[in-house]
Write the structure tokens for this entry.
Amino acid sequence: MGVVRISVLKFAGRAWVFGDNISTDHIISGKYKFGSISTLEGMLPHLFEEVKPGFHEKVREGDVVVAGRNFGMGSSREHAPALLKMAGVRAIIAKSFARIFYRNAINLGLPPIEATLIPEVTEEGDTIEVSLIEGKVCNVDKDLCENFRPFPNEILKVIAEGGIVAYIKNHGGLPWGTG
Amino acid sequence: MEGTLTHKILSRKAGRAVSPGEIIVVDVDLAYAHDGTAPLAIKVMEESRTLMKVADPEKVALVIDHASPPPTVAAATVHRQMREFARRFGVKLFDVGEGICHQVIPESGLVKPGMVVLGADSHTVTLGAFTAFATGVGSTDIAVAFATGKTWLKVPDTVKVELQGTLEEPLMGKDVILKLIGEVTASGLTYKAVEFVGEGVRTISVASRMTISNMTVEAGAKAGIFPTDGKLISWYEERFGYSPKPIQPEDNASYEEELNLNLSNLEPQVAAPPNVDNVHPVSEVEGVEVDQVFIGSCTNGRFEDFLMAAKILKRGRVRQGVRCVAIPASRRVYIDLIRSGIAEMLANAGCVLAHSTCGPCIGAHLGLLAEGEVAVSTTNRNFTGRMGHKDSKVYLVSPATAAASAITGRLTDPREFIGGG
Ligand code: SF4
């Protein structure tokens, strides 16, 4: 992977646990997206405000979100993954993702990882280890690991550099040539 | 997924056999955005100077359709920005009145079987009716596709929907897709590519296929694809004198999931508020009083839709107190309605016929709902308040059911006026 810092692709973090069908509205309510607050910074205090009050104060850089099915459903503005990333969340491990959220997350450099067992067993505060290169996610406290299909190299590069726009800024083109 | 339409299209684009769940990078054959999504895409491009270019202007289109002509200064400003962008990069612009993106793009011959198409709009799946792999994306995605001509895609699982029997007047594609959504629910096809195959496909017009593909996204699908059959080939031949190379699924294609739908015993379907999967046969919801009827949108704004409405409205006229708004999905449809005399019939029957725009579909203009009002609409979403006041209601139906309801002023089975028994 050349210049990419290994820590971006292999990391451990504390888990924040959510259930099924967490919508983009649960992540950031529509009333903040289009209401009086227009900046991402301004929206940050309202992140997960109804499903996990106080999340914004307690979340630490490098934490991960662990969730059930269909994470990121609903209106798929890019605000939702952008805010999670801004809050310090390093990865989302869910049973499945809503399609446009999945794309947006990768494009912003926030890896969406599909796993079945880890979301079943994880409790809030457990330590989760992720290796994006190997395609492996572990719950250290529960001593359980699960493999997932690794992202292709090009996507890993995009994630490592903080997203597709950042990648293009840094390299003048996409990792898959052209541009 | 071997042998499915999705497998064939994506494997050819990737240059190797693909499998569900893997991420591939492909050339985009066509990318488009409209006045709701183009501004953000242009902003993404402007913020990164390396992105401020267009890889191939022939493969990019902008469409002014959501608030058109501009009802506000803000919309006018966005439209001006789109014109400037189109001029600067030499990309195709469909300006005010030309039509709704998912209609004017295929009508202009820009979509062909086998293509990978990205649109910055969830209903881009409409173009699956032309055996294209067409899907909706966000603004960053479309900006990258404009600038580089490429995108990444996660290969979806494929679901086969086997259509049996015959679709007969006044049943339309809308009834088929509403029935399917009712069965599988609004999240039932999340992330999947749906392919419509079987004997029944032959009995469904290209326009109705577009309606069906259009609403696959309401069940969460990533694409809703029809094979290239004789009907589609004639569609191309009549309009462009061109015969596309057909793409068909293999007989032994392996699908992750298979569903069946019999067209022959289908009843007209209604999606009652507030969810698209709250689907009932019309007999269960008949009689609901109606304030507005809307026939139009990318779902049902084509010639056959107004032809069906006119056939029914010939038997009566729009009831006093009901407003009936009819909006063709493109200028070409509009002209065809004038030439064929349907425009006059609709106007005589008491409908308001407007120029082509998305209009009331998203509550932008040309027919909003007051508190407590009820609309019967041929559009694709019935979330509470979508067409106006937050306490207004929308029932989704076919143009036939819409026209019948306009006559009686309550939700009505179109078979009272035409066909059926
Ligand atoms: S007609 Fe409605 S659904 Fe179709 S593109 Fe316009 S706003 Fe979207």
In short: Chain A has a mean pLDDT of 88.
